[in-house]
Structure formats: structure tokens, C-alpha cells
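Subgroup meeting minutes
Present: P.N., E.W., G.H.
Scribe: E.W.

1. P.N. recapped why we're keeping a running log of single-chain structure predictions: easier to compare across weeks, and new members can see raw inputs and outputs side by side.
2. G.H. added today's entry (121 aa).
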Amino acid sequence: MTPPRSIRDESPDRLYTVTGGRSRATDADRFDLVTLVVAESGPAPGMQSEHTAILRLCQDAPTAVVELAAELRLPVGIVRILLCDLLDTGRISARHPRPLDASAVPDPDLLEQVLVALRNL
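Output recorded in log:
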């Protein structure tokens, strides 16, 4: 999906406008780079174009914050501010990926064998 032209404009004035002059999100610590975001509702008429783009990107599958920033071509800090707006209105939910269970981690010997096999290719 190619972002709309207005999202690509990274001039300081545009970024200031996108965030409403805010330089920090209130709950920015809730969104690290790998936090998964899911749309809980669709875009509303009159909604800011960046908010709409985020909701559309997250409607089919959980999407990481870093992926949203890359798709929108916006700095991660700006995306975090926008995500806080959406979270405050209940339009998205956010969760961290599940940590790996210790028993789910492959055996180091097996990983070594795979590495050797890849080098032999």
C-alpha cells in the first residue's frame, strides 16, 4: 500500500500539524518498536488521514509499530503520538508479542548444525 502524498511530507511544519504540536505522547512507553497494534473499529468520517491510514493498516492483522512507521514513512515518535490518540479513543488495542517459552527455544546443537549446513551451501 502506497501512503497518500500528504503522509510522505516530512517537513517539520507538517509533522507539527500531524501531532497537533505535541512532541511526546502521554503513554509513549506503551508502544515500543515491536508492540502489535490491532484496529478495533474502522475510520470515522472527518478523521485525520494519518489515523485513518493506521486503522486500515491494522484492520486485517496485528501490525508492529515499526512496520506502521515504515509504511506511513513517518518517524516512530510521531507514530507513537498518533497511536496514543487512537488508543485513548478505543479505536485500537495494543499488546506486546508473547515471550518465547524456554521450552520453545531450539536446542543450541541443532542451531549449530543448521548454521554449518547453511555455510556448506
